[in-house]
Design a protein that fits this description.
By secondary structure, the chain is an alpha/beta fold. It is about 45% helix and about 15% strand. It starts with 6 loop residues before the first strand and ends with a helix. It has a single domain, classed as 3-Layer(aba) Sandwich (Rossmann fold), CATH 3.40.50.300. The chain has helices at about 20-30, 45-55, 65-85, 100-105, 130-135, 155-160, 170-190, 205-220, 240-245; strands at about 5-10, 35-40, 90-95, 110-115, 120-130, 145-150, 195-200. A 5-stranded parallel beta sheet has the order 2-3-1-6-7, with helices on both faces. Strands 4-5 form a two-stranded antiparallel sheet. This is dTMP kinase.
Length: about 250
């Protein structure tokens, strides 16, 4: 059976170095004469991507359901081209993917005031705007990465990096919620056997992180690609998840 290219996704919190590591990996693959392609989501050059870009820069306001579906549509725009490249033997490196879409949407909360036990004060209880199941539903059946890296960065380190806070979700509260959703996604991916999920400490020097990424990617290179067809995300739960999402 002929082998295909590997699908590698690099995920993480904001300012964790995703773009830096994706670019570094592409350079290593090119140096090793491995056919490769670099994709970044959201793709802000498409009509859908331009709407997303305006939203992320807080230039426009959109309903939370709408922006999540736009992010998903942006990925579906490129889904067939990703599969085609993989089947042709090209390794695809993706800077952010469906997991970010789910994590950042499902992490959104609205504070709800509730009375404390003593009746003298109120405390905010976070209420999720969108359920995890609803956020996951439109991502089902997208091409599944063979290897996903989650770059974890501490709030202190993220804030020390240039540009932090310029976009909508770059604050401690949101990032902590995002981290929790990523943990849930990682558990699901690992238990499903669809792909490998690797968590890396992005507080480390970027060269150390780069080497850790390469150590995980090398087996794919040494085996000259991946055997078997491109798998799909959560495909076995497609019908149940889509039905459940209608009532959530």
């Amino acid at each position: 059976m002929s082998k295909r290219g590997a699908f590698i996704a690099i995920e993480g919190l904001d300012r964790s170095g995703k773009s830096t590591q994706a670019s570094a990996l592409i350079k290593r693959l090119e140096a090793a004469n491995v056919p490769c392609k670099h994709i970044k989501f959201p793709d802000r050059t498409t009509p859908i991507g331009k709407m997303i870009d305006s939203y992320l820069q807080s230039k426009t306001e959109l309903d939370d359901h709408v922006i999540h579906l736009l992010f998903s549509a942006n990925r579906w725009e490129l889904a067939s081209s990703i599969v085609k490249a993989l089947e042709e033997g090209t390794t695809v490196v993706c800077d952010r993917y469906a997991f970010s879409g789910i994590a950042f949407s499902a992490a959104k909360v609205l504070p709800r005031e509730t009375t404390s036990k003593d009746g003298d004060s109120t405390i905010p209880i976070p209420t999720h705007v969108l359920s995890y199941e609803w956020c996951r539903a439109p991502e089902i059946s997208l091409p599944a990465p063979d290897l996903t890296f989650l770059l974890e960065v501490s709030p202190e380190k993220a804030e020390s990096r240039g540009g932090y806070g310029e976009e909508r979700y770059e604050n401690k509260e949101v990032q902590e919620h995002v981290r929790q959703v990523f943990d849930r996604i990682g558990e699901e991916i690992e238990s499903s056997g669809v792909g490998k999920w690797v968590v890396l400490d992005a507080d480390l020097d970027k060269d150390e992180v780069e080497q850790s990424v390469w150590d995980e990617v090398k087996p794919f290179i040494e085996h000259m690609g991946v055997s078997g067809p491109v798998r799909k995300l959560w495909d076995k739960t497609r019908e149940a998840a889509m039905v459940d999402a209608l009532y959530i």
